[in-house]
Amino acid sequence: MEMSGPALPARTVAQSQSEMTELVLPNDTNTLGNLLGGRLMNFIDLVGAMAAYRHARSHVVTASMEHIDFIAPVHVGDLIILKSSVNRAFRTSMEVGVKAWVENTIVGIHHHVASAYLTFVAIDTQGRRVPVAPLLTETDAEKRRYEEAGQRREVREVEARRRHIPKFEPAKI
Ligand SMILES: CC(C)(COP(=O)(O)OP(=O)(O)OC[C@H]1O[C@@H](n2cnc3c(N)ncnc32)[C@H](O)[C@@H]1OP(=O)(O)O)[C@@H](O)C(=O)NCCC(=O)NCCS
C-alpha cells in the first residue's frame, strides 16, 4: 500500500454530505407491502458510499455496516429520504453516518425510520488501499460525531480481535 506522498488537503464534512430520495415500489416490498429490510440496507449502503466517494475522491468499498434498528415500517408508495455524512476519516478508512426518514406525502407524515454507521475503505483502480484526506469539522454536531466515531472505532477493534475477523486475502487464480 502506497502511504507516502504529499499530505492531502483537509475536506469539510459539508463537502461530501449526500442525500438520496427513493419512491418505494412493489418490487421493494414484502407480501404485506412493507419495504424489505435488505432493500433499505441497500439504499443505506448507496447513500453512505456517495459521501465516502466524495470525501475520498477515489473508489471506495464497504468494509462494514453496523447496528441498524428498523424503527418503523415503510410502505409501498412512501418516499424514503436518506442523508449521509462522513463522521471521521482515519488513514484509508472513513466512518459514515446514514439516517433515513419516511415521508408519506398523501397523509403528510415524515419520521425517522433507521440509522446506521458504515466504514468505507478507499482503494485505487488496482484495489490497493489509498490514504484519505483529513476531515475538517466545523459545527458542534460534527465535532461530537467525530469524537464518537473514534470511540466506536476502538470498540470495533476490540470486537474484531475478540471475534478473530480474518484478514482479507485475495484468492490466487
Ligand atoms: C475492506 C478491506 C479493503 C480491508 O482490507 P484489510 O486487508 O483488512 O485492510 P487493513 O486491515 O489494512 O485495514 C484497512 C483499513 O480498513 C479498516 N477496516 C478493515 N476492516 C474493517 C471492518 N470490518 N470494519 C471497519 N473498518 C475496517 C481498518 O481499520 C483500516 O483503516 P485505516 O487504514 O483507516 O486505519 C477488505 O477487507 C475488502 O476488500 N473487503 C471486501 C470489501 C467489499 O467488497 N465490500 C462490498 C461488500 S461484499
Structural description of this entry:
The chain is an alpha+beta fold. It has one domain (11-163): Hotdog Thioesterase (Thiol Ester Dehydrase, Chain A, Roll). Helix content is 25%, strand content 32%. The chain has helices spanning 37-56, 140-163; strands at residues 11-12, 18-23, 59-66, 79-89, 93-104, 109-123, 135-136. The chain has a five-stranded antiparallel sheet. The chain is globular. 31% of the residues are buried. The mean pLDDT is 93. It binds coenzyme A. Coenzyme A binds next to strand 3 and strand 6.
Give the gist of this structure:
This protein is of the alpha+beta class. Helix content is 25%, strand content 32%.
Topology of this protein?
Elements: E1 11-12, E2 18-23, H1 37-56, E3 59-66, E4 79-89, E5 93-104, E6 109-123, E7 135-136, H2 140-163
Parallel strand pairs: 1-7
Antiparallel strand pairs: 2-4, 3-6, 4-5, 5-6
Bound molecules: coenzyme A.
Residues 61-64, 90-93, 119, 121, 129, 156, 167-168 line the site of coenzyme A (COA).
